[in-house]
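Morning run. Coffee first, then this:
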Amino acid sequence: MRISSLKESARRFVARPAKAFAFGIGFASLVSTSAVMAQATCVPDPLDPARGWQVNTALDSSDLKVGDVLASADVQVRYTGTFSRTFTLQLGGGISRGAPVVAVPNRGAGNSPDLKAVPLNNIPGVGLAIVWQDVWGGRAPINSWNYGGYITIMNGWTFEVSNAAQGWDLFTEVALAPRDGYTYANGWRYTQGYRYVLVVTNPARYEGGSFSGFQLQGGATFWASGAMKEAPSITCGRRDLIADLNTTLPTIPPLPPPVAPTCTFDQATLNQTVPMDSASPSRIAVQGSSREAGAEGQAAFRLNAVCPKPKAFNLYFTDVANPAENAAPFIKQAAGASKETVGLRLFHDQDTNPLSFGVAPTGSTIPTRAPLAFNSTQDNQAFSIPLTAQYVRLPGVTSAAPISSGPFQARSTVTVVYP
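And here it is:
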């Protein structure tokens, strides 16, 4: 009877194809759902600037060093996806092989002993490095697994040149396991943080200023990638972090211009009146004569300076009475009984040729005449520049020409130029 009843039920089932069709649809639906649960997905979201460009306002731009941090920006990349069971998320990246990488000392940008920076084409003396930040979990859509803590991965370490064999460098593996009864089919999210860092690579070429668009030398780039270890065919996308940067944060605020170190000159020696001894008019040397010939009545004096940092500087002397004169080995008197016959010449230290007087430097216009040049090579270097002033007959005034006696006064200015 039970067997007959089962057969009768079977006949009824066959006799009602609509129900059989409905059963078939239901079965197909279950298969489809199972396939979705097994299929892993992993998608990187667009770059999210957690903190825009911040210029290092504490930087001493008068004493720039290789590795000094000029500016930095923090960004985040979220990896979002689904998976039905425990899996391991791999995160890695690096710098493109063959990039002209410069290793610079790390001066506060992270934990690496040095940073791997790639010089920029469009801003001299500056390179870009990228530092790994923390990875952390988060809730992606509602009813998904939630991880609120941080997982430290290479935190504060610089991107390196990619491994030649693998083509990429693995920096961390994050194990993700379902919790609280949820599965990753409901969605998971992990966020990776990066810090873009602009550093000084060549202080001598650094100019400061602002720019837009990052152009790395040699066509180099930085990149990052994610993959699901248990699903090798599923990757989270390989990101070009320079393309991301040029899309999201392409413009740099003005970087501080370099402040050229200067030397401090003793104002008492810059603004001094040098008393000269009297000289017999008949003993005043003619123009072009030797230094020994003009020794009568000469006076020695000094210009004093201190350079806090190593720095070169040039001195240019100008005739106050005739400032347009160029490369003259003397200066004239503005007034006096002998202004048409007697001038003054200057010698540096033991030089046998007098200094040239001429037009003072202005702006970017530098005279062609040779300056009196100096170069400090150490911190707080002091200079005491010896000079000697002598009477000299003006051009065309012969040794036999009479010279009127009386007061003598000639004036010169000195301009300091830092090349």
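Residues 47 and 364 are 44 Å apart (CA to CA). Good start to the day.
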